[in-house]
Amino acid sequence: MKRISSALLGVLLAGLGAGSAIAQQQTLPASNAPQAAPTTAAPDDGGLTGSVTGEGAWQDLGVAIPAFPTDNAVPTAADGGNTAALGKNLARVVYNDLKNNGLFKPTGPDALPGIGYQEVAAPNFSGWRARSAEMLVQGFVRAAADGRLTVGCYLYDVGLGSELARQGYVVQPGDWRRAAHKCADMVYSRLSGESPFFDSKIAYIAETGPKDHRRKQLAIMDSDGANHRFITNGQATALTPRYSPDYQQIAYLSYLNGNPRIYVYDIGSGTQHLVLQSRNPTFAPRWSPDGKSLLFSMAIGGNTDIYRIPATGGEPVRLTNTPGINVGGSYSPDGKRIVFESDRSGSQQVYVMNADGADQKRISFFGGRAATPEWSPRGDQIAFTCICGNLRVAVMNPSGGDMRFLTNSWQDEAPTWSPNGRIVQFFRTEKNTGHTSIWQVDLTGLNERKLNTPVDASDPAWGPVLP
Amino acid sequence: MKRTLLTVTLLAGSISLAACSSNSAKNRTAAELPPPPASSTTTTPPPPPSGPAAGSQADFVASVQSDTIHFDTDRYNVDAQSQTILQSQAQWLARYPMKRVTIEGHCDERGTRDYNIALGERRANAAKNYLVSLGVDASRISTVSYGKERPIALGSDEAAWAQNRRAVTVTVQ
Q1: What is the ipTM score, two decimals?
Q2: Please, are residues A418 and A167 in contact by the beta-carbon 8 Å criterion?
Q3: Are residues A282 and A304 in the same domain?
Q4: Interchain CB distance below 8 Å, A299 and B156
Q5: Do the Cβ atoms of A327 and B156 come within 8 Å?
Q6: Helix (H) or strand (E) holding B150
Q7: Both A182 and A225 in a single domain?
Q8: What is the pLDDT of residues A166-194, one digit of tens each?
Q9: Is B2-33+56-172 a domain of CATH 3.30.70.3450?
Q10: How close B154 comes to chain A (CA, Å)?
Q11: Domain range spanning residue A368?
């Protein structure tokens, strides 16, 4: 267990703060609108068969999101400088979350009149009906004497004139965007019946420089690209990061000291440790769902197998033992099974085994090669890279059935799931230039879009929803 | 040992006729090779006095057939042409028994990242194993895989990919 100071590593940002402050839930007063029944029409479908093929009617809902008023415009350290300007920024984040993900038909604060503070819990339904809004998101922001912010978020059905949901959050000024993401998550979950995903983060590799001298840095950002930070300075090539489930650590591959090895970087302390002291290359790190152990791949004499090791270090346990390349690995959400990649049959294919390595069986039989399998957080799908002519992102069920392509480009690879298992991110490489970028696509195959990153980007790893 | 290694270069032609898979290449030992022709010891002239410093990386590159061997798509077997190249490298290593080398394994861009790191490692090891079969002590050879991270040909076509699927021997100075 070798600890290395961040200064020596040239780590740019030591001490980002030990993870994110919890967005404390705050009980809000009910609005004066009647409460709708606590469940929506969205069914608990328990599987994607019914819900992925057709867009729900909810996709077409017009959602109005006016600026969040404040009771008292006071200075704040959050973006905007004072709580009145912040209120508009909060509504913008909610609007952009919904709009950029192709969810609903939102209208944001820059296209809507402002509302008064008292109006938040007493909406002017007739006015919104006149604007043809079907759903209405109203919120407020207040600053406490200690600087902390209280953000309230109400969702109304304009047609029914009723309140569908409300939540309040207490956050530090630096976490103001999280309150907006939580609000967008509430709206999305209530209207779609799906689990939330906006309040989450992505670790990835930032790429710069020419194709034969790429500089590759570990970087992190919020799910909407905000709060972007470089973690390493690029002196050593960094690859394939994975956030720990609690966002406190990132496991990744680094060529620090010349050889590929897995390190675990601690975000709070800005230090990192080598997962395993070994003369052999270690790569492809993957966290267990409880964050207590890591899967990794190690090549010995050219033969690669998958191992499990406590995240804090210790004795590795070998899970595969066949000639060839066994690599990667992704746990089922219950931690009982692992999907991985092996070329034991002669080419890369996807296999499933029990968490202890027992009962290994191949599930991909499509022609072409199948690589980088990632188990959906919902458990019902496995995303992977199909190497069939071009490289394309596809999904199948855990038995290998119902294979569907989600993308069709020259080179798309390395899928990672949104926390709710509804969206897949991946990276796309441009032919010849080698430029890379992170993209995402719905499980429906729709709403494909490129994420905005400061420089080229690859190897995205989407973490869970923050508490 | 030195005599045998010198011989091997001369026999490139016959070896390539018997182009073999990596597995058989791995198992091939110097003892299995046909006996040397009489002239073998005169075929490798000492480096010219004005050339690179004896035992240097420049000397290595100038002395061997190539510092690089190539592989087919998704393969790691050392083909006949690569065997000849590695034989010339083994010969140089026999001349400088204190020298150590690192073999760098590389892949083309048309594979996934993790797998390519494993495949590059496999290619580097295939080259290493062949050198060891020629009598080079395994402790003198280390390997490192760069997967698809360090292409030398920058295009996205078969010709570029063929150049990038390689194992490069670099002397440790």
Answers
A1: 0.89
A2: no
A3: yes
A4: no
A5: no
A6: none
A7: no
A8: 999 999 999 999 999 999 999 999 999 99
A9: no
A10: 7
A11: 201-462
